[in-house]
Amino acid sequence: MTPGRYQMYNNNSFKLGLFGANCSSGRAINTTPERWLADWASCSKMAKIADDGGIDFILPIGRWKGYGGPTNFQGSTFETVTWASGLLAQTKNITVFGTVHAPMFNPLVAAKQMVTADHIGDGRFALNIVVGWNGPEFDMFGAELRQHSDRYIYAEEWISAIKEMWRNPEAFDYDNKFLHMHNVVSEPKPFGGSHPFIMNAAASDVGRDFALRHCHGFFTSFREFDVQRAKGIVDGIKEQARNIGREMDVYTQGHIVCRPTRKEAEDYFHYFTTEAADFEAIDTILALKGVTPENTPDYAARRKAIPLMNIGYPIIGTPDDVAEKLGRIHGAGISGIAFSLVNFVTELPLLTQELLPRLERMGMRAPQAAMAS
Ligand SMILES: Cc1cc2nc3c(=O)[nH]c(=O)nc-3n(C[C@H](O)[C@H](O)[C@H](O)COP(=O)(O)O)c2cc1C
């Protein structure tokens, strides 16, 4: 691997990424007037601020259908590989992921789309594999939502075939349980003779084991963050990887509200997760999980919890507070965080200007000047 060719292998021991900006409302189920609309002009502006400011990666959500309500939460979404291609064309350093549903994308098309994005970005495309779980999305595709373990058997075949297309200069057959591909050729190969950083987003042990065998990163959630507990989990994953001769980075996700004062940050967090939450969309999310007012005595409490659960680990406060919390995540051995903001354009400058220098001083990130040289 050429050092520095991929931002995911740069000298920042803790990587920062923007999560969910291809979807309307991002990850915050909110009705605020300033909520993220995910229009192209805003996405493009966000990528430029992030790239110039030293953010490491941009990670979209694979989402095909919104959740209704007055905002139709995540109802307007850019397809992620084409979105990544556009952003890569406009940036210089930042890695941009595609979040690709293995069961929805024909592997030959996906392999070539991703190579195209990788060449546009001079090797800065990365892949986040998702196996999917959302029934109505599968219905739109006319695709089968397989049994849980079969989803990963399919994904295993899908990524193995893609890696072969990225590697093999000769025509080959790939014949397995689900995929039957004959005389496959695929040129060009990914940019620069190696292949994109691959991550798998999952919470289950089966998903983790799939990541261990096939990916460079495991993207998962740590709720109620407890450094000691998380450290044990992360160490265990890394050891399991080493036992099969591989290295594994663990990434997590969260939401940042950073303001000059703690009170401002806490008040805003409270506002968009309570009075400004889109509760009709929340009802849809709960219904998808089979939770309804009829079958759930504590429905009102479940409803209130969703805006918080959906954004993952909350990181709320002043630049010092945010830096301290990220320091604890880093201390657990986690390689980076993909975080969302309510508005990725208006909220990002405070982070690049105030948070990043603090993380540098804490030794979690290389000095900006050194990164540029
Ligand atoms: C951190 C994280 C991010 C995810 N991102 C997406 C996504 O963007 N789109 C999607 O359809 N599913 C997403 N998923 C869902 C997974 O792809 C998977 O379907 C789900 O976690 C169930 O599989 P599991 O039981 O192995 O975790 C995500 C899961 C996690 C843990």
Describe this protein's structure.
By secondary structure, the chain is α/β, with parallel strands linked by helices. The protein has a single domain (7-372), classed as Luciferase-like domain (TIM Barrel, Alpha-Beta Barrel), CATH 3.20.20.30. It is built from 13 helices and 11 strands. The protein has helices at residues 40-53, 80-89, 107-120, 135-141, 148-167, 205-214, 227-243, 262-273, 279-288, 299-310, 319-331, 348-361, 368-372, and strands at residues 15-19, 57-59, 95-101, 125-130, 172-175, 180-184, 198-201, 217-219, 249-258, 313-317, 336-340. The strands form 2 sheets. The protein has an 8-stranded parallel beta barrel with strand order 1-2-3-4-7-8-9-11, surrounded by 6 helices. Strands 5-6 form a two-stranded antiparallel ribbon. The radius of gyration is 20 Å and the shape is globular. The protein starts with 14 loop residues before the first strand and ends with a helix. 44% of the residues are buried. Mean pLDDT is 94; it is low at 1-5. It binds flavin mononucleotide. The site of flavin mononucleotide has 19 residues, from helix 6.
Q: Would you tell me the structural class of the helices and strands?
A: alpha/beta
Per DSSP, the total helix count is: 13
Terminal CA distance: 18 Å
The tally of strands reads 11
Mean pLDDT across residues = 94
CATH C-level class is Alpha Beta
